[in-house]
Amino acid sequence: MAKKLLFAFIFASCVSTSLAQNDYAKLDSLFTLLESNNKFMGSVAISQGGKVLYSKSVGVTNLYNKQRATNATKYRIGSISKMFTAAMIFKAVEDKKLSLDQTIDTYFPSIPNSKKITISNLLNHRSGIYNITNSGDYWNYYTQPKTEAEMVAIIAKFKSDFEPNSKSDYSNSNYILLSYILEKVYKKPYGQILTEKITTPLGLKNTYMGNRITLGKNECYSFTYTEEWVAEKETDASIPLGAGAVVSNPTDLTLFIESLFAGKIISKTSLAQMTEIKEGYGMGVFQVPFDNRKGFGHTGGIDGFSSALCYFPDSNVSVALTSNGNNYDNNQIMIALLSTYYALPFEMPSFKTIALTEEALDKYLGNFASEELAMTIKVTRKADKLFAQATGQGEFPLEATKTDTFEFLAAGIKIKFDLPNNQMTLVQAGKSYIFRKV
Q1: Architecture of domain 24-341
Q2: What is the residue extent of each domain of the chain?
Q3: pLDDT digit string, tens, across residues 346-368
Q4: Which of the ends of the chain has fewer CB neighbours closer than 10 A, N or C?
Q5: Which GO MF term does the entry hold, naming one (predicted)?
Q6: DSSP 199
Q7: pTM for this entry
């Protein structure tokens, strides 16, 4: 449910050749470094077979009394909520209340193509339903409560992006509608279904449907960083529901995903359907690469909160991250956590930057286009800092690490300019893209 960055980030990937011991002290040093440089606030956990091997919390829950985060702190988990929603849909199928191939016109006749769109299409983002968080108007109402009728009307006013089941494209609207379907078939609010079907049976004491943030319940506010940490506005939970409004923490999340893959929530047959990847999408899950392994999981973002969760069946290990303030790339943190578990090396970050004159920065200004990504990035300057803005997206600051190299750590973006050839190379998630000046 987050505002878009330049690209959707890949959860964790790493290539390593040498082995080391599980260095949890190094992880402690990493989080000390991140916190002291205003790069990360949040909690993490590594678990294997239900046993927590490592947990850490840094940062504060609010800006007023600077109360420290602990392992009991709870966070909004954004789109990881979709894993819970998908699991509950499969529970409803197993309870004979739904079928994956039934169309949604019975529930939402006003949705374009509702007679062609199946519940399966909603689950794996093949519905063609427009993603309402892509609309500029979304940011005018996201903090206000909405009824089902209001939300369905908002979703229904947009034309379909493509013919149902012809391709895949991520849409939060799919899981908002799935939340309403659950409420209709069980005749209960989403939060109550979540409690009855998942959290109570599994003993997840820190996981529930969110409401207004309450510090007295060990919840926390979220923040973004400019020159200092600034409190974010709250999305009203009635809008995302099971697409992004669940509250949890890392230890609950690792127990949830390990229980899911152990067959404690849905059957192995249902799990196989849920984890079948088609054009990059499963049903409430994505495939997660790390080293030579393949896991499953999801990421999330809402307001200033961000999260990541993954599970690797071959090792029965899960890793979770929940954050209420991020000025760094969660991918790199997940790589560090997984590398530590698998006894692989990882590099500690360096936050050294250099100051360049306005005259030196002006050499890099202009529009740069990539044929590979069909995207243009505009590079501008404000005082003594460069900013970049991709087509249709918000601008982001660039910190100089060398005279020709700049980084945006929050999204793991590195840009290296090649002035003689009038081009720049953008690196993100281990992939490089050439942009030529136009």
Answers
A1: 3-Layer(aba) Sandwich (3.40)
A2: 24-341, 358-437
A3: 989 988 889 999 999 999 999 99
A4: C
A5: hydrolase activity
A6: I
A7: 0.89
